[in-house]
Amino acid sequence: MPQATLQAWLSLYAAVGVMVAMCAILTVIKTAHDYRSGTSKLPTATVLDKMLVAPRLWVRWQINYLLGAPAILGIAIYYAHYLGFGTLVDV
Questions:
Q1: Tens digits of per-residue pLDDT, 47-59?
Q2: What is the pTM (predicted TM-score) of this model?
Q3: Domain of 10?
Q4: Structural domains in the chain (count)
Q5: What distance in Å separates the CA atoms of residue 86 and residue 48, rounded to the nearest whole number?
Q6: Residue 74: which residues within 8 A CB-CB, separation 6 or more?
């Protein structure tokens, strides 16, 4: 593999990793905001509801995270275009 190709792939992976980390942090903030503002509510009336708090939080976080996936994909494709698809394919 040529050095330019290796550097392009490392650059792309690093950029996507940073975007994923940013998306995860912003998703935690959005999920907390949803529950604090009252747009999403956690029922805690019964013991079963209290046991299901963590899975419900996880599902809400996953939904919010998946809403950011198209932006990550679009930015990654745009960055790959900036690097040059020919450079990435030259393996």
A1: 998 899 999 999 9
A2: 0.77
A3: 3-89
A4: 1
A5: 55
A6: none
